[in-house]
């Protein structure tokens, strides 16, 4: 079941969740888009009243917080990604599952170990390990773990670098927002973001297409990125959109994601900002 988003953060509209709950609902899955927190107090309150689990999709939210609490640690489950596009990567694929329940943690450990209690064997809890449940091989290699660990050791440095880059974009593009040419990301009070991405929103799909073409001609890689899941083949087959799609589709058609990575040079960033300004001067 999908509900509409908030256009200010591109996150789930927490005020629409309760009306979408049915007898079949098992969990609420808030996605912290761009590393900016959903309204977790409201979501956790709804989950408690209806006896639901909360699974935080914190794939983009490592190092982000909500009212001082790390995203991914507030719900019953928190999921993170170490894919090559994320702030911290294990060299291609990888992830992290945080579980705030000992019983579920024990089963998750078995599932990741091909359905065996091998981890218990290595801890000396059993004299041999055996097949005890469903599972597959979800363990990273030692090389992947080492690649990731070096970045986690430098997490504060990487985070500060990305936040500085994000702020330069914001400062350089704020005149365009004041002129009503673009909308820039909003960070709600009580939220600390991790500068996972920087996006802007233009007037409509036609203007976005033109801007992307202009940036490509200037050799700037920008993408549209935000695609509504309920319009996908699987979304249509397995899911259902509850209520009115006031913002999800229309806002997705406005969004442009700018180059954003650790070590982006200020000179390169200035060229991106200059190219965007050129576009709006010409149009």
Automatic annotation (TrEMBL):
GO molecular function: dTDP-4-amino-4,6-dideoxygalactose transaminase activity; pyridoxal phosphate binding
PANTHER family: DTDP-4-AMINO-4,6-DIDEOXYGALACTOSE TRANSAMINASE, TRANSAMINASE
Organism name: Marinobacter persicus
Family the UniProt entry places it in: Belongs to the DegT/DnrJ/EryC1 family.
Keyword Iron-sulfur tagged: no
GO biological process terms held by the UniProt record: polysaccharide biosynthetic process
The protein's name: dTDP-4-amino-4,6-dideoxygalactose transaminase
Keywords: Pyridoxal phosphate
Residue intervals passing through the bilayer: none
NCBIfam families linked: ECA_wecE (TIGR02379), PRK11706.1 (NF008687)
